[in-house]
Design brief:
DNA-binding, homodimer, mainly alpha
Chain lengths: 137, 137
DNA sequence: TATCAACCTACTAAACAAGTAGGAATAGTG
DNA sequence: CACTATTCCTACTTGTTTAGTAGGTTGATA
C-alpha cells in the first residue's frame, strides 16, 4: 500500500520542470542536483514519460527535457499510472492481470472497485501546476 | 500500491466468521477449506487480530475462533491497518518512520496526507456486516 | 572534434511477499 | 491417562520487486 520512489521521483521531476520552466530544455543533471536524486536513476524513469508524451527530451549539448504541455494540463493521476503501472489496490482490478475466478461471488470486489475509482478520481483532480504553486488541499 | 494477501485474507476470514457465526468457536481449518487458503498461512495472520481484540481464539479440541464483536462493529479500516501495518501511501506518513527532513518544503506532502485521510475514511466506513450481506457500494 | 546531453541494456544488493515446516502448548473426550 | 484437535510460535525458503549502479551508444551543438 505504498507509492514507490519511481512515482514520487517522477512527480518531483515534473514539478521541478514546471518551476524552472524556460523557453529551452533543462538538463536532468540540474534537476537531479536540486532534488537530490541519483541522475542515473532518473534517466531510467524518464523514458516512460517521454514515450507517453508528458515530457520532450532532446539529446546533445544544450539539450535536456521540458514539459510537453502546460503544467495545468498534467495530472498527478496520469503520471502515477505511468510510473507505478496502475493505481489498483488489488490485482483483480489490473486490466493486464488474469481474470479472478472468484469474481462473481467475491464479497469484497465492489469495495476494491469503488476504492480504485476514488483513487483515480482524487489523483486525476490534482495538477502539477497546483503542486508547484503549493496549493493547499 | 497494493493490498497484500495478508490484508485480503484477514478480511475474508472475518467475513467467513461472520457468515458462519454460531454460539461456539469455528476452527480455522474449516475457514481455510471454504476460502481455499492455506491453513498454515492463516495461522500466521490471525495472531495480530487476536492481540488487538478483533477475534478470540480458543485452543484444544472444540476450539477455534469467533468474532469478539458483532460484525456491525468491525470496520475494514481497522482490519487493514492491523494486517497491512498502515494505510499510508508514502513512508513519510507512517508514524513509526523517521521524520522526513524535506517535510517543510515538500510540495507533495499535503496531497499524500489528504489521500491518506481519504483512504482511512473510506475503509473505516465499511463494516464486515455490510460485506457479508453483500451490500453494493 | 570535443563536449554535453539523452538513451539503452545489463547487472546487483537488499527487502518484501507469500508461503512452508515442524513443532509446543492447551483443552476437551473415550 | 492417552488421544485428538486445535491454537500458537519460530525459523526457514523461494520468488519477486525495489532502488539503484555500471558502462556504454547515439545525437546535437560550439
Amino acid at each position: 500500500m505504498m507509492i514507490s520512489t519511481r512515482g514520487r521521483y517522477a512527480l518531483r521531476v515534473m514539478i521541478d520542470l514546471a518551476e524552472h520552466k524556460t523557453d529551452g530544455y533543462i538538463p536532468m543533471k540540474e534537476v537531479a542536483a536540486r532534488q537530490e536524486i541519483s541522475l542515473k536513476y532518473l534517466e531510467r524513469i524518464l523514458p516512460v514519460l517521454v514515450k507517453n508524451g508528458l515530457v520532450e527530451g532532446v539529446q546533445g549539448k544544450g539539450g535536456g527535457y521540458r514539459l510537453s504541455r502546460v503544467p495545468e494540463e498534467c495530472t498527478v493521476g496520469e503520471i502515477l499510472r505511468l510510473t507505478e503501472g496502475n493505481l489498483a489496490p488489488v490485482a483483480c482490478l489490473d486490466c493486464n492481470a488474469e481474470v479472478c475466478e472468484k469474481k462473481d461471488t467475491c464479497k469484497t470486489l465492489s469495495m476494491w472497485t469503488e476504492f480504485h475509482r476514488l483513487t483515480n478520481q482524487y489523483f486525476d483532480g490534482i495538477t502539477i501546476a497546483e503542486l508547484a504553486n503549493g496549493k493547499s488541499l
